[in-house]
Design brief:
- The complex is a heterotetramer.
- Chain A is about 65% helix and about 5% strand.
- By secondary structure, chain A is mostly helical.
- Chain B has helices spanning about 10-25, 30-55, 85-110, 115-135, 140-155, 165-195, 200-210, 220-235, 240-245, 250-260, 265-270, 275, 280-300, 310-330, 330-360, 370-375, 375-390, 395-410, 415-440, 445-450, 455-470, 485-495, 515-545, 545-555, 555-565, 570-615, 625-645; strands at about 65-75, 75-85.
- In chain B, helix 1 (about 10-25) packs antiparallel against helix 2, helix 2 (about 30-55) packs antiparallel against helix 3 (about 85-110) and helix 15 packs antiparallel against helix 21 (about 455-470).
- The N and C termini of chain B lie far apart (about 65 Å).
- By secondary structure, chain C is an all-alpha fold.
- Chain C has one domain (about 10-105): Helix Hairpins.
- In chain C, about 70% of the residues lie in helices and about 0% in strands.
- The longest helix of chain C is centred in the last third of the chain and has 33 residues, at about 65-95.
- Chain C is elongated.
- Helix content of chain D is about 75%, strand content about 0%.
- In chain D, helix 1 (about 1-20) runs antiparallel to helix 2 (about 25-45) and helix 2 runs antiparallel to helix 3.
- The longest helix of chain D is centred in the middle third of the chain and has 25 residues, at about 50-75.
- The mean pLDDT of chain D is about 80.
- The chains are: A mainly alpha, B mainly alpha, C mainly alpha, D mainly alpha.
């Protein structure tokens, strides 16, 4: 096979894999959110469909597909239909350059756990996110309703404004790494201080880290920055007029954006797939953490299953438990362990961010629009700029230019 | 030669500074401040001039101070260069010294006038230009000063611009001077074309070699043209007419500009150009004739004038005639000597007259005066001295200079000119003392005269100083025959040469000046002439006061002619002014100006308007049509490029 | 994404001609469109066409390749500034004249 | 392969450019302009200028065009009215354009025979670094000047935007 063919095939496989994993995880992210929300608000969240409502995403999907899909009379049809696709595609595009782990060797073909490694990956992500505005703005404009229009305007304004501080806060880590390739950036964060603290950017770049998180929240229109769909004033913002699958696309797009931004946060500030703990002497204890985690998960599931009265749960949960045990044991098998560990840590960190998102969403109130803009322009941008300057000076001073 | 350690530029700069300060910031300042500034600048200039006189070395060869390049047109170069030699040194001293005194005088004289600051800024400006004129290193810069002083005299004559006569007088002075300047400019052109430069040293170098030419050679023409310029500036025949009218200006102006300094610029210029003149005997003769004629002519007019300043004006003209006579006969040093002495006593006379006029509440008619000698003793005393000086009373300044001139005239073989000169001397003495007697003796003929008061000290002090100078000023030029050494002649010799060497050839048969008895004799004649004039004046105006009237009735025609100044002004009116007016109005204005020039201008304007009217449609305000035009341009350019590249 | 190791064999002139076409289309937009914003956009289109030719030239002789890119970068920056100001102006115009039609905005004339 | 991509992008660019003119609604024109820019970004990638390609997307598509669309939405621009006050542009427009195109292309054909092809050594392009270096030492002054220009532009935009008519 020509190298190009192998490249093609490998890429296609990776794309399929990533897409599948991403979409399912998105679906279950919704479930997780609702569960967490329930717990935070002292209720159960979805419980009916499937054990602990585990089948809820499926049900939602079916509902979305079969709901009626009215089109407003005043709508600019072409754009009205195009906007959701645009939103979804653009939000998924960013995933392509995100590395989930180190390299893996399958059937004699070594490839990165990443759809493609651009030497300007970071810029590519910016490109994708900056285009993300179109989906929302056009949706708001094309649905021919004043609520939608205002929502669209607001969100596009908000995204443009916060894109700046987002990019600025990213520049710091980029300067430290001296590269735009995400893989290089991650590699630059390897190692530990005094064998304890990992050399992640979130420590020297703590300011950038915080500002990045805030900006990311704004970019993904999450609370406390979810002005575009401020129910109180704008009904549902730019997707007021959207229903069923088109709405689902926006929905998925948003969650995809969440995931993307969490991934970037992980890569830039939490050292990507680097493990947080150094080995003690020669003993690589941290290598067993995945196994431990999965085993613990299995135990929890089994305990739950014993308490449950319904037959389904009695069957289902042990099955999950066994799957967990299997995975955990797989981690003990080196050829799997080495690549998979990175993925594990990466996933863990991303999950951490996602939970943070959810947690904040159900904790904080919403900004007022003008205060939002003011905050973005008058505080975020100056702070991030200052951070860039200081970082630049320090690096220049260290490298002796 | 380029030694800038003398800093000559300071001299003209100081008055310019004063002029600028007074002119720009003087308005509304107190008169003390303004006068202070004006006098200080000029005084400092004088002090520096004196310092230079004693310290600087310029005697053997002139010191040329290059300041900045000015014009560099091909081969022709003219720089801002200053030129210090005995001649310019002397002139500088006279100008600054007398100028300073007159400034001081003016602070009091003008005290009541409006436009005080204007007056003094003009006056300082005049000093600046005069010093530029005197110190200039080449004819062009000299011409700048020349025109500058002309301008200032115009401004100052017309200082009372609300008086029509003053304005007219100013214009007259300006225009008449233009005629002379025309000649001067032509002369400069000729100098350029012959000598290739205007710098004194180069020009003189160029002409030193050339032999004395008889008849109309280039040098002669140059000299005649320069003479024309000098005539204009120094009020010689036939261009003297402006000077009497110039008396419309304030008296200090008359004293400074129209007696002491500016009008002598012509003499200075001729003396400066002596290396040229000596090569052109015909031109010299012309100068001598002009001078002699003017002096006699003006003196005769002066006999009958009743306006005190007019009398002085005509006497100035005739004295200037003397100077020209001196230059004409080759006694340049004598001429300059007379310039100096004349500056003293004539300035003194004018200032005295001014003092009289103030005492008379600005009444200038001598017929209204009389008996003032008690009222204003200082003025009387000083003016007496001045009159004696100008009349050539032995031992006073005028005696030596005038005597020198007359002797030189004779000794260079111009006997009849000497005769006329002596006659003039007699007349001078007569009308000066006529003035003196009419003004100060007899009975007051008006109540102004009754209530006359002596002028303030700042006016009388300059009078006294000048009086002293008029007394002792002559001793720098005491000829050998009176036991002197004629220092001034030696002093000026580097600049203008010794009189003996002049007038090559024709002076040979003339009695050489190594004839003391003759010289004494001739000075005796001069003195006698002077005394006779004085005596007749005394007889006519003190002893038998109605003599004048009787004479004027007896020789009524001649009297009228003299009183009307030979009708020269009327003649000029008929000959030049009216024809020119007519031509200007009928042809130049109605045909050329309103027809041709305005026609062209309006035609162009209309044409532009018409074109614009059509072309403005392009500016439709529509961006897209602009874009279309742009595209058309691009298309055509590209078309051209393709054409070019096709080949 | 284009993999990095594919050799190039597209004649430069194609790029240039493409950019020429785009430029002409931009001019056409300028000439024919009536909405002022669209006219503005056609200017941007022209700029882009020129950028393309810049990059192509730079590509033709790789000594200047980077300079060409820097130049294009500058063009973009200026275009951004231009857009900011231009759009602000357009908003003002719309406020005052309630129209976006270039032909309605014709006060600046004789 | 590259040729194919070139044709794809070129076709996209030309098509969208034509659409820009054809569309009577500004927003559609704006979108087609975005498409042109995307296609151009692809072409830049083919020309080994990946930095410029991405910047093209970020700055042009992501910022400038968003601004355009934003304004269009703000002024809710509608179909353009079919009135023409300018004669010359309408009458001479098409012939002029044809002429222009023909001329430019002929000049290009004359000056750039199609033998000249791009050379590969640039295509493994990691010239972002070079661009940056170039930008910050050779072109430092222009860079600073443009930054000032930006500042001025921002001020101008703010001032004009704030003024209440």
């Amino acid at each position: 096979m020509t190298p190009f063919a192998t490249f093609l095939i490998a890429t296609l496989i990776k794309i399929a894999l990533v897409l599948f994993v991403l979409l399912t995880s998105l679906a279950y992210l919704v479930w997780v959110e609702r569960k967490v929300a329930g717990r935070i608000q002292n209720r159960w969240g979805p419980t009916r469909t499937g054990p602990h409502g585990l089948l809820q995403p499926l049900a939602d999907l079916i509902k979305f597909i079969f709901k009626e899909d009215p089109t407003p009379v005043a709508a600019e049809r072409l754009i009205y239909f195009g906007a959701p696709f645009m939103a979804l595609v653009l939000s998924l595009m960013a995933i392509t350059v995100i590395p989930f782990g180190g390299s893996v060797k399958v059937a004699g073909v070594t490839t990165w756990l990443q759809i493609t490694d651009l030497n300007i990956g970071m810029l590519f992500i910016f490109a994708a996110t900056s285009l993300g505005v179109y989906g929302i703005a056009l949706a708001g404009w094309s649905s021919g309703s004043k609520y939608a229009l205002l929502g669209g305007l607001r969100s596009s304004a908000q995204m443009i404004s916060y894109e700046l501080s987002l990019s600025f806060s990213v520049v710091g880590p980029l300067i430290l790494a001296g590269s735009l390739s995400l893989r290089t950036i991650v590699d630059s964060q390897a190692g530990y201080w005094f064998h304890v603290i990992p050399k992640w950017n979130c420590i020297p770049q703590c300011v950038a880290f915080v500002t990045y998180l805030i900006a990311a929240f704004a970019e993904t229109n999450r609370v406390p920055f979810d002005l575009p769909e401020a129910e109180g004033e704008l009904v549902a913002g730019y997707h007021t007029e959207y229903a069923s699958m088109k709405f689902a696309m926006f929905f998925t797009g948003e969650y995809a954006n969440m995931v993307t931004s969490s991934c970037i946060a992980t890569l830039l500030f939490l050292g990507g797939w680097q493990r947080p703990f150094d080995k003690i002497g020669s003993f690589d204890w941290a290598g067993y953490i995945p196994t431990a985690v999965f085993y613990a998960l299995a135990v929890i599931l089994l305990v739950f299953s014993l308490k449950r009265a319904r037959l389904v749960e009695r069957i289902v949960l042990p099955v999950f438990a066994t799957v967990c045990i299997l995975i955990g044991s797989l981690f003990l098998w080196t050829p799997f362990h080495d690549p998979a560990e990175g993925v594990f840590w990466f996933a863990a960190k991303v999950l951490f961010f996602l939970l943070l998102y959810i947690w904040i969403r159900w904790t904080l109130p919403r900004f007022r629009y003008d205060t939002l803009m003011e905050f973005g322009w008058k505080y975020m941008i100056p702070v991030t700029l200052a951070n860039v300057l200081i970082t630049g000076f320090i690096v220049a001073w260290r490298t002796g230019h | 030669m380029e030694r800038t350690d003398l800093h000559l530029w300071v001299l003209p700069l100081l008055p310019l500074l004063g002029a600028a300060v007074n002119g720009f910031f003087g308005k509304g300042r107190s008169r003390g401040v303004i006068g202070g500034i004006a006098c200080t600048t000029v005084g400092l200039a004088f002090v520096y001039a004196v310092y230079l006189f004693f310290t600087a070395s310029y005697a053997e060869h002139a010191h040329i101070e290059f300041i900045a390049p000015w014009i560099a047109a091909g081969a022709f170069h003219a720089d801002f260069a200053l030129y210090l030699d005995p001649l310019s040194m002397l002139m500088t001293l006279v100008v600054t010294g007398v100028g300073f005194l007159i400034h001081v005088y003016a602070t009091a004289y003008m005290a009541e006038e409006d436009g005080f600051y204007r007056f003094f800024s003009y006056l300082n400006l005049f000093m600046f230009f005069m010093l530029t004129l005197v110190l200039a290193g080449n004819y062009l810069l000299l011409f700048v000063g020349w025109e500058g002083v002309g301008l200032c005299s115009y401004l100052l004559i017309g200082f009372y611009y609300l008086k029509k006569s003053a304005g007219d007088a100013g214009k007259k002075a300006f225009i008449v001077n233009r005629i002379g300047d025309f000649g001067f400019v032509l002369g400069m052109f000729l100098i350029i074309s012959t000598a290739g430069s205007l710098d004194y040293d180069k020009v003189f170098m160029a002409f030193r070699g050339s032999s004395v030419e008889n008849g109309m050679g280039p040098i002669t023409i140059i000299c005649l043209l320069l003479l024309a310029g000098a005539c204009g500036k120094s009020a010689q025949l036939p261009l003297y007419v402006w000077l009497p009218d110039a008396m419309e200006g304030p008296t200090p102006v008359s004293a400074l500009i129209h007696a002491a300094t500016m009008v002598t610029a012509g003499v200075y210029m001729v003396a400066r150009s002596s290396p040229l003149f000596v090569k052109a005997p015909d031109a010299m003769t012309a100068v001598a004739i002009v001078g002699c004629a003017t002096s006699l002519f003006a003196a005769t007019i002066g006999l009958v004038q009743t306006d005190i300043k007019k009398v002085l004006a005509y006497s100035t003209v005739s004295q200037l005639g003397y100077m020209f006579l001196a230059c004409g006969v080759g006694a340049f040093s004598a001429g300059i000597f007379h310039v100096m002495t004349h500056a003293f006593f004539k300035a003194l006379l004018f200032l005295g007259a001014g003092s009289v006029i103030t005492a008379m509440h600005h009444d200038q008619e001598m017929t209204n005066m009389g008996g003032l000698r008690k009222k204003i003793p200082i003025t009387f005393a000083t003016m007496t001295i001045a009159c004696l000086a100008i009349a050539g009373f032995p031992g006073l300044a005028g005696f030596f200079s005038k005597d020198e001139i007359l002797w030189q005239t004779y000794s260079h073989g111009h006997a009849w000119m000497w005769a006329l000169g002596t006659l003039t001397a007699a007349m001078t003495a007569f009308y000066m003392f006529r003035l003196l007697f009419l003004t100060f003796f007899g009975e007051p003929r008006s109540d102004h005269a009754h209530h006359a008061h002596e002028s303030p000290r700042s006016m009388t002090v300059p009078l006294i100083v000048l009086a002293v100078m008029s007394v002792i000023g002559g001793f720098v030029g005491v000829p050998h025959v009176w036991g002197g050494h004629n220092e001034i002649e030696k002093f000026l010799e580097p600049s203008v040469g010794a009189p003996a060497m002049h007038v090559a050839g024709e002076a040979s048969d003339a009695p050489a000046e190594s004839d003391p008895t003759a010289e004494r004799l001739f000075s005796l004649y001069a003195v006698l002439a002077g005394f006779s004039g004085i005596g007749f004046a005394y007889y006519a105006y003190v002893a038998k006061p109605d003599t004048g009237r009787r004479l004027s009735e007896k020789f009524h025609g001649a009297y009228q002619v003299l009183l009307k100044k030979y009708y020269v002004d009327e003649l000029y009116d008929v000959l030049f002014v009216h024809p020119i007016n007519w031509v200007s109005r009928a042809f130049l204005w109605h045909v050329v100006d309103s027809g041709v020039i305005d026609g062209t201008a309006n035609g162009l304007a209309d044409g532009a308007q018409a074109v614009g009217g059509v072309a403005k449609r392009i500016q439709s305000g529509l961006i897209r049509s602009y874009a279309a035009w742009i595209v058309i341009g691009a298309v055509s350019v590209l078309l051209y490029m393709t054409m070019v590249w096709a080949k | 994404m284009l993999p990095n190791y594919i050799p190039a064999h597209v004649p430069i002139s194609w790029y240039l001609i493409l950019s020429a076409m785009l430029f002409v289309l931009g001019v056409a937009g300028f000439l024919l469109k009536r909405n002022i914003v669209t006219v503005f956009m056609s200017i941007e289109l022209m700029l882009n066409a020129v950028n393309l030719s810049f990059i192509a030239f730079g590509f033709m002789q790789h000594t200047v390749a980077v300079n060409a890119q820097v130049f294009v970068f500058f063009v973009m920056v200026v275009a951004a500034a231009e857009a900011a100001v231009g759009l602000a102006i357009i908003i003002m115009v719309h406020r005052n004249r309630k129209s976006l039609n270039v032909d309605d905005i014709e006060l600046m004339k004789f | 392969m590259e040729t194919i991509l070139f044709f794809v992008f070129a076709a996209l660019a030309l098509g969208s450019a034509i659409n820009l003119i054809r569309e009577s609604h500004p927003i559609y024109s704006a979108l087609s302009l975005v498409a042109v820019m995307g296609a151009l970004a692809g072409l830049y990638l083919l020309l080994g200028a990946e930095f410029i390609a991405v910047v093209q997307v970020i700055v042009y598509a992501g910022a400038i065009m968003v601004l355009f669309i934003f304004v269009l939405m703000l002024l809710n621009a509608e179909e353009e009215v079919k009135i023409d006050r300018t004669k010359i542009a309408v009458r001479l427009g098409y012939p002029l354009l044809v002429l222009l195109a023909v001329e430019i292309i002929s000049v290009l054909r004359a000056k750039f025979p199609s033998e000249i092809t791009s050379h590969a050594d640039l295509l493994n392009g990691d010239n972002t670094r070079e661009v940056g270096r170039m930008l910050f030492d050779n072109y430092l002054l222009p860079f600073e000047v443009t930054s000032v220009l930006m500042l001025v532009a921002i001020m101008g935009a703010v001032v004009m935007g704030k003024r209440k008519s």
